[in-house]
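Reminder to self: tokens first, then the designed residues, so the page reads top to bottom the way the pipeline ran.
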């Protein structure tokens, strides 16, 4: 049966992998609400002992998550930041880690405010520039962490080329795939060793689950992460694991609609005189359009460009008034859900990043990050137009 499932299309596998019918015949995988499991003997080697170490619900989810990225292993966490922390916890004092400079504010805060005293040398660099990356590698470099597309400027790193460079130096490559999701990008297939997701976003898709995941092909890394996951205990609850397993079933149909909506809206924004800049990998004006076309593809091989758009409003538009005129678009952090969300990275997701660094990166006070949902594109455009012109 396993071989048969391997031949199924991605959309079919999202519904069936991990979703086994148990002895009751229930068509939906049950939730196991228990913290501990009865053992047959005092020296039992039972598969399940204590839910922090593993449970049937979590095992079903992790089997499903591994399939999404063609991974040998998957590890579920209670949040994307818990998953990100697990990656960095693999390293010891004296190790050197390279990180995309335009990284999520929470990762920046983790590295500079929480892990800054553990004597791992974290260095932020421009990972879109292969020459800069190559020159930054040292003898003690152990990891290159890419966020691609980046948040919120949608810069792309060439995963395949970076992985080729890293392999020559025996360096691990991890990729934060939150902004594209597994439907539009599968970094392990491009040579990466670890894929990280804030599964709160596209994989959940309904803005109702907080969770994270690591999908891993490197066996040494998988062994370390197993220990970190079990010991740290930052796992999703059985209910959150079940909700995520349910949500992945609709991943393809949700995300395909979101991606199509975003292409339509990005073109409209690009032609709007009240918008001074539009950043979307599907526009030919994006400086890495060719890389996006090569690197981002649906499971069927068609180019896709995501559902995240960043755009800068003309300075004459008052952002607070703009926000007050929105109704179906919600002013909120997060992304990847069926409901459209908009935020201002400067004052919200990247508030912890110093002003000088935000300015250098191009994160301005008038830059908005738009997570396009599955509403009708015409309705979203109509609302944006109204908010801009009734200011």
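Designed residues (391 positions):
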């Amino acid at each position: 049966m396993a071989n048969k499932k391997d031949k199924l299309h991605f959309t079919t596998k999202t519904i069936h992998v991990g979703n086994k019918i148990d002895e009751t015949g229930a068509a939906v995988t049950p939730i196991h609400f228990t913290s501990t499991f009865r053992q047959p003997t005092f020296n039992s080697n039972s598969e399940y002992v204590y839910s922090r170490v593993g449970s049937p619900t979590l095992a079903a989810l992790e089997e499903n998550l591994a399939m999404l990225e063609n991974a040998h292993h998957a590890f579920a966490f209670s949040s994307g930041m818990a998953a990100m922390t697990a990656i960095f916890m693999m390293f010891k004092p004296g190790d050197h880690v390279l990180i995309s400079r335009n990284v999520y504010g929470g990762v920046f805060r983790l590295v500079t405010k929480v892990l800054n005293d553990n004597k791992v040398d974290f260095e932020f660099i421009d990972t879109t520039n292969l020459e800069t990356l190559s020159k930054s590698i040292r003898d003690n470099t152990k990891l290159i962490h890419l966020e691609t597309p980046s948040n919120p400027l949608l810069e792309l790193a060439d995963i395949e080329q970076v992985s080729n460079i890293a392999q020559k130096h025996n360096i691990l490559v991890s990729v934060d795939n939150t902004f594209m999701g597994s439907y539009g990008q599968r970094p392990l297939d491009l040579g990466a060793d670890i894929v990280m997701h804030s599964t709160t976003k596209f994989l959940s898709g309904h803005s109702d689950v907080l969770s994270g995941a690591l999908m891993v092909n490197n066996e040494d890394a998988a062994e370390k992460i197993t220990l970190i996951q079990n010991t740290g205990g930052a796992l999703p609850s059985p209910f959150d694991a079940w909700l995520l397993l349910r949500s992945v079933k609709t991943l393809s149909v949700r995300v395909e609609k979101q991606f199509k909506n975003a292409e339509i809206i990005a073109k409209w924004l690009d032609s709007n005189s009240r918008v001074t800049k539009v950043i979307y990998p599907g526009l030919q004006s994006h400086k890495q359009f060719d890389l996006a076309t090569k690197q981002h593809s649906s499971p069927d091989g068609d180019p896709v460009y995501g559902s995240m758009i960043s755009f800068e409003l003309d300075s004459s538009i008052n952002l607070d008034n703009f926000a007050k005129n929105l109704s179906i678009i919600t002013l909120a952090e997060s992304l990847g859900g069926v409901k459209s969300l908009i935020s201002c990275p400067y004052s919200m997701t990247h508030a912890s990043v110093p002003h000088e660094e935000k300015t250098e990166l191009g994160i301005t006070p008038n830059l908005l990050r738009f997570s396009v949902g599955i509403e009708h594109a015409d309705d979203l455009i109509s609302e944006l137009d109204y908010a801009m012109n009734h200011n």
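The CA atoms of residues 36 and 389 lie 58 Å apart.
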